[in-house]
Amino acid sequence: MERSKTYTDFWPRYLAEHRSPTTRGLHFFGTCLGLVLLAGAVATGTWWLLVVALVCGYAFAWLAHAFVERNRPATFTHPLWSFVSDFRMLFVWLGGGMAGELERRLPDAS
User: Fold this and answer.
1) 27 within some domain
2) In whole angstroms, how far apart are CA 100 and each of 11, 21, 35, 84?
3) pLDDT tens column, 73-94
4) pTM (2 decimals)?
5) How many domains does the chain have?
6) 3 in a domain, yes or no?
7) Which of 14, 16, 57, 104 is the Cys-Cys partner for 34 at CB 3.0 to 4.6 Å?
8) Is residue 25 part of a domain?
9) Interacting residues of 60 by C-beta distance below 8 A, sequence separation 6+
10) Which residues lie below 8 Å from residue 76, measured CB to CB, with a gap of 6+?
11) If you average pLDDT over every residue of the chain, what do you get?
């Protein structure tokens, strides 16, 4: 992915790199697992779980890019925007708006 100058330009490109429902599902699973592990680390004081949470969050996403989308994760060009977009994509999906967001941002995705 080329570097985007603004987040407004980045978001549709991010979605384009996550066209497959399998890719998005793996992202959602990794993000949710990472959040559960983060909560576990805070609740129990088992701080090594923070590392496991980070690894899980990224591992599922990167596997999806390698084997499903066959593209390079946006993390390598825009780490912060990519991190924010993982959560944005998750919350859009949880709110039932993923199909509409894809249609709005990627008209050719239908």
Assistant:
1) yes
2) 14, 14, 26, 19
3) 999 999 999 999 999 999 999 9
4) 0.90
5) 1
6) no
7) 57
8) yes
9) 26, 27, 29, 30, 33
10) 1
11) 94
